[in-house]
């Protein structure tokens, strides 16, 4: 094997490993989107019913999003979290200080919630199904797992290529990484579109802002790494095969 192709193969493997780690971390963390609300909102008189509704099993889309807006919420593909004061005083609120202990309360999305229909008016079951938001949500949930699966399958093919001491099978690895990159890019695009459509339905309260978190950024970084790994795998396999064919023809001649 030519040193050029071996070097390209090693670089592609490193890029593939990094993108896999980034994608797995992105799927498993809860910071795809973060809301920032004023400190006064969290240190005011506590609304216990809002917390109970947020942590309840039957919280609808509007209920948990209202809590996310008010209590510095974060949201991932699997869980939603809010940050609230640790010590609650329901009858006589204590004097407010500049700092207070807070605790993060999280609630996982069930599989039913992941595939549940989204409504034109969030929380209103009589407003009709919003098909666009429904399928965007499902795609943003499923595509990262498809991407991760394709990369793992590509890694197995690459391992077989190493055992066989041949670069030609890595063309399949490159194609799988290309498909994985498209899935990751599609997931990121679906998530952005879904968030924008949600904020058109549920306008953020005054002095509340939202931004994409570091989990989302990891997914964004993973996609170009997958494309670069794909390009290197395909180039190394195709060029090596081409040179081998030319060399074989030259020897026959």
TrEMBL record:
Instruction: Please give, as recorded in its UniProt entry, the membrane topology of this protein.
Output: Multi-pass membrane protein
Superkingdom of origin = Eukaryota
Protein localization: Cell junction, Tight junction; Cell membrane
- The answer to whether UniProt assigns keyword Cell membrane to this entry is yes
- Gene3D superfamilies xref list: 1.20.140.150
Q: What keywords appear on the UniProt entry?
A: Cell junction, Cell membrane, Glycoprotein, Membrane, Tight junction, Transmembrane, Transmembrane helix
Q: Which GO terms describe its cellular component?
A: apical plasma membrane; bicellular tight junction
Q: State what protein this is by name.
A: Claudin domain-containing protein 1
């Amino acid at each position: 094997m030519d040193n050029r192709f071996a070097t390209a193969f090693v670089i592609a493997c490193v890029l593939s490993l990094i993108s896999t780690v980034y994608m797995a971390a992105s799927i498993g963390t809860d910071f795809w989107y973060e809301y920032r609300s004023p400190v006064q909102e969290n240190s005011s008189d506590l609304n216990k019913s809002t917390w109970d509704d947020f942590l309840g099993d039957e919280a609808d889309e509007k209920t948990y999003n209202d809590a996310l807006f008010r209590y510095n919420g974060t949201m991932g593909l699997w869980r939603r979290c809010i940050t609230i004061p640790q010590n609650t005083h329901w009858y006589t609120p204590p004097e407010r200080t500049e700092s207070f202990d807070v605790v993060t309360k999280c609630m996982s999305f069930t599989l039913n919630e992941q595939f549940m229909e989204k409504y034109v008016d969030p929380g209103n079951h009589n407003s009709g199904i919003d098909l666009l938001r429904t399928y965007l949500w499902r795609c943003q949930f499923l595509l990262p797992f498809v991407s991760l699966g394709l990369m793992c399958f590509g890694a197995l093919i690459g391992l077989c290529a190493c055992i066989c001491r041949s670069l030609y099978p890595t063309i399949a690895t490159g194609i799988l990484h290309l498909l994985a990159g498209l899935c990751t890019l599609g997931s990121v695009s679906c998530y952005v579109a879904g968030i924008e459509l949600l904020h058109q339905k549920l306008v953020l309260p005054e002095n509340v802002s939202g931004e994409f978190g570091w989990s989302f950024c990891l997914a964004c970084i993973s996609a170009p790494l997958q494309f670069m790994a794909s390009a290197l795998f395909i180039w190394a396999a195709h060029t090596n095969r081409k040179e081998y064919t030319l060399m074989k023809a030259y020897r026959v001649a």
